[in-house]
Design goal:
Helix content: 10-25%
Distance between the termini: 48 Å
CATH topology of the largest domain: Cathepsin B, Chain A
Order of helices and strands: EHEHHEHEEEHEEEHEEHEEEEEEEEE
CATH architecture of the largest domain: Alpha-Beta Complex
Number of domains: 2
CATH superfamily of the largest domain: Cysteine proteinases
Shape: elongated
Radius of gyration: 24 Å
C-alpha cells in the first residue's frame, strides 16, 4: 500500500523491532571516538527524500531505518518503498526483526536498485548514555540506529510523534516501555540549536510547553523527524548501532569478452541467470577488459588499440583515437 492518504495516522502504527540476541550484543565491538577528530557542538543530517517505507502498514521499522540511513548519509540514495518492502519480505523481516539481524544481512545482501546493490559496512555498538560518544557516532558515522520502547510515541502527554509531518517535539517520555521499535538519531544540540537547524530545511518545530532547553536529539520515525530531550532518549533506548560506512555500493554484474566478435556480455552474480549480450556491442571483438568508474576499457584481438564503453548510456563502444593501430592484450588499472 503506497497511498498514505488512505491510512489513519492517528491510530497506533506498527512497530516491529525485537531485542538483538545476547550473543550478538556480547560480541559487538564498541564505537570509540577518534580523539583527533573534533565533534561539532550541534549537528543535523537530513535525507534527500523521506518515506514511511510502509512502516505505516507493516512492522518493518528495522528495514525502514536502513532506507532512511541510505537516504541521509552520503551518497544519499533514496531507495523506493517497493524495493524496501520486497527486501524485508524476502529476508523474513517484514513484520519483526532484530537490529543486528538486519545489520548483518545488509552487509552482504543489501537493497538492489538500478543494477547496483547498496550494502552496509561493518557495525559497532554505541554507548548512548555517554553524550560525547553518541555525538561522535552521529556526526562521524551517523545516523545512529536505535531500538526503543515506542508505546507512548503517539500518546505522550508532553508532545508526541506526528507521523508524516516533521517538526514534532517530545519530552518527559516514560521509562521501561517494552522494546518494540527501531528509529534513527540524526542530529543533536540544545533545543534552540536544533530548532534553528530544522529551519534550514523549512521545518518549523512545535515545542511543547515546559520542554527542557538543554541537550536534545533529532529522531526519525514513521516518515517524520522530530526532537526529543536527552532524558527521554535515555528512557526509551535499549540498543544503539552505527554502520561503518553507512553505504557500500557494488555492481553485481560481471562483464565478459568472447573469443570472436560477439561483443560484451553480462552475467548477474545474484540471479546467476544465463549471460546476455549487450546489443550495442554485437559484432565487435574484445579480449582484455577493465572498469574504471562507469567506463569499461577494452583491448581487441588485433591492432585496434583501446576502446571505451559507457555503462550508463550503453552506446556503441568507441575507439581511443590516440591508440589506433596498436595491438594490446592485457589491460590493468594501477
Amino acid at each position: 500500500m503506497a497511498n498514505h492518504d488512505k491510512i489513519d495516522l492517528t491510530k497506533r502504527l506498527p512497530r516491529g523491532a525485537i531485542p538483538s540476541p545476547r550473543h550478538a550484543l556480547a560480541a559487538a565491538m564498541p564505537h570509540i571516538p577518534d580523539p583527533k577528530i573534533s565533534v561539532p557542538s550541534s549537528f543535523l543530517m537530513w535525507p534527500v527524500q523521506m518515506d514511511s517505507w510502509n512502516n505505516y502498514v507493516y512492522g518493518d521499522c528495522v528495514t525502514a531505518e536502513e532506507a532512511f540511513a541510505k537516504a541521509t548519509a552520503g551518497p544519499q540514495t533514496f531507495i523506493p518503498q517497493a524495493t524496501v518492502v520486497a527486501w524485508a519480505s524476502a529476508h523474513g523481516v517484514l513484520n519483526g526483526a532484530s537490529l543486528t539481524g538486519v545489520l548483518t544481512a545488509m552487509q552482504t545482501d543489501g537493497f538492489r536498485l538500478n543494477n547496483t546493490t547498496y550494502n552496509d559496512g561493518l557495525y559497532n555498538s554505541v554507548n548512548w548514555a555517554n553524550p560525547a560518544i553518541l555525538q561522535s557516532a552521529i556526526s562521524r558515522q551517523g545516523p545512529v540506529k536505535i531500538g526503543v520502547g515506542a508505546d507512548d510515541f503517539q500518546t505522550n502527554p508532553n508532545g508526541l510523534v506526528t507521523p508524516g509531518r516533521s517538526g514534532w517535539a517530545m519530552f518527559n517520555y516514560p521509562k521501561n516501555l517494552q522494546f518494540d521499535h527501531c528509529v534513527s538519531l540524526c542530529g543533536y544540540g540544545t533545543l534552540e540549536q536544533l530548532v534553528a537547524l530544522f529551519k534550514n530545511y523549512n521545518i518549523t518545530v512545535t515545542v511543547p510547553n515546559g520542554m527542557p532547553t538543554g541537550l536534545c536529539y533529532a529522531v526519525f520515525t514513521w516518515n517524520s523527524i522530530g526532537i526529543i530531550d536527552e532524558q527521554s532518549m535515555l528512557n526509551m533506548t535499549y540498543e544503539a548501532w552505527i554502520r561503518n560506512p553507512v553505504t557500500i555500493t557494488c555492481n553485481p554484474n560481471i562483464y565478459l569478452t568472447t573469443q570472436g566478435s560477439d561483443g560484451i556480455w553480462t552475467f548477474d552474480l545474484a540471479s546467476q541467470a544465463r549471460p546476455t549480450q549487450i546489443g550495442s556491442t554485437a559484432g565487435l571483438g574484445f579480449t582484455g577488459i577493465i572498469a574504471v568508474g562507469n567506463i569499461l576499457y577494452l583491448t581487441t584481438h588485433g591492432g585496434d588499440g583501446i576502446w571505451m564503453f559507457d555503462l550508463t548510456s550503453q552506446a556503441r563502444p568507441t575507439q581511443l583515437g590516440s591508440t589506433a593501430g596498436l595491438g594490446f592484450v592485457g589491460i590493468l588499472c594501477v
